[in-house]
Amino acid sequence: MLILGLQKTTLLDYPGKIASTIFTGGCNFRCPYCHNRDLVIPPKDVIAYSEEEIFSHLSSKKKVLDGVCITGGEPTLHKDLPDFIKQIKDLGLMVKLDTNGTNPEMLKALIDANLLDYVAMDIKHSKDKYNTIASMNNLDISVIDNSVQILTSSNIDYEFRTTIMKECHSSEDMEDIGKWLKGAKAYYLQSYRESEQVINPIFSPHDRSTLESFVELLKPYIPNTNLRGID
Length: 231
Ligand code: SF4
Description:
TIM Barrel, about 230 residues, globular, binds iron/sulfur cluster
């Protein structure tokens, strides 16, 4: 595991839980709006956390923490993620995984082994336009679709979530995404925000009323659709 960040306590990253958040390094996507540039493309002189440091913290705080959120970057790029999660579960902590859905085999193996309590999967766009955001050299959308199917047919708690940008997401796109994710447990729309860490600051947010209209458009497909983090 390449661990490049640790937030010792958060009430925001794991819905309804007191958690620590662990940030893994490296990602196979290059979303232009990504706020985690130094995680996606780690600087050469980056200093990583050792697993000993992480587990020393988790062991000392396990009585006050409900769980751990593992985010990135893309955590499933790390082959030793299942072993790492197993050690967290052995401490009696719950685990939430944030993923871009590009490793359905690992996702399924983690679910089958009861190593996950919650999954938040990014949905970048409609299937046809997915790579306009993900920006991979070769994106096989069936891989993303496999992860969607694994989550929607599982019994664990999960959510899909999309960062919405004015230049990219229209009501037609929302309709396409709604048809794709129909019947999902939960779907959150998050508005784009600019910051110094954004990989390529070329986007802008929709206004609130447009975002609310997207939610109404999506509800016939996914009744539990909501806005998140909108002022
Ligand atoms: S998948 Fe997530 S971490 Fe990777 S580039 Fe996109 S927003 Fe950043």
